[in-house]
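Holo prediction. Input below; ligand is 6-O-phosphono-beta-D-fructofuranose.
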Amino acid sequence: METVRSSVTKSIGILTSGGDCPGLNAAIRGVCRAAHDRYAMNILGIANGYRGLIDGDARFLKPEDFSGILTRGGTILGTSREKPFKKGANDDLEKNFTKDKVMAIKENYHKFKLDCLVVLGGNGTNTTGHLLRQEGLNVIGLPKTIDNDIQGTDLTFGFNSALSIGTDAIDRLHSTAQSHNRVMVIELMGHKTGWLTLYAGVAGGGDVILIPEIPYNIKVIGRHLIERARSGKTFSIVVVAEGALSRKEAGMDKKERKRYREETVTPSIAYRVAREIENETGMSTRATVLGYVQRGGIPSASDRVLATSFGTAAADLLARGEYGRMVTLIGNEISSVDLSVPADKTKLVPLSHYMLDTALAVGTCLGNSLPIN
Ligand code: F6P
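Structure of the complex:
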């Protein structure tokens, strides 16, 4: 057992917020083990994200609460998409709940005598953390999401596990595509970004990869698939991000695009792309939507390592009283940035990213030509 080190922070609250992902429990364990064993902090486990802090739904954790959870999927704390600062956030409050949500969070933070709040989540979670800090609370963020779209860190935990699941699904589609001489369209998550689709697409050898950052032209896709067929390839795999959009949509304003997507993205983008491919090429095409499977199950070894390292680094920041930071991975270094860095931003795949050129170099169609940089 390590000897206890001195710490500025005595008492923390920990919560997980937003969509779950593999690695959350590993991160909780990392924070709690280091905070408890190394720095002797008290740890309040808050249920269901910010909602638990609004309702005061929390309890102090004992070591057995964060033992044996390294490999477990999901989050032992529960999560929600509660956004206390969002316009209309108080509309769902019960009539007898007189204070607003932010006020309730502040009151409970003080009632539980917390020195800092540790929030594990994506863009929304870290943005809320940043806003709470402006309300006078101490906050430290950890970047979690299968989307890998958080500004300020090269990598988020959850991404690697989802990448393996996505790649495995693409691998499995190959054999059935080949048997039936079909075009198989598979849709992966990623919200408004293409990280997961690009990486899984390259890992799985996708013949076409469509990401939101490169609006697609169905004619370019059709030509590519027909050329493949002419060269003797009897099937093709198209990997599409849930947020992928056509060139036509990219030219629309936000309102018009929303209406257009409501009409055409039914039941989801993979089906629209499959219909468009059939119309364009006459090839037999099927759609698969992987959905929440991508967020389930045990974390990959790589995510366990990253989540644990992020967790223990958060405990070190707490011990030094370095609040208002989000833990990051830049290159091979675990570090941290000011919470204002991720707040209200989305990290897109830059058009200069080497993976795009990698994909092109192995003959993958990206649905459109890239602008020359
Ligand atoms: O952010 C993770 C994520 O799985 C995204 O990829 C997806 O767009 C979104 O969450 C789905 O959200 P929900 O769990 O609210 O349906």
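Residues 150 and 347 are 5 Å apart (CA to CA). That is the main takeaway for now.
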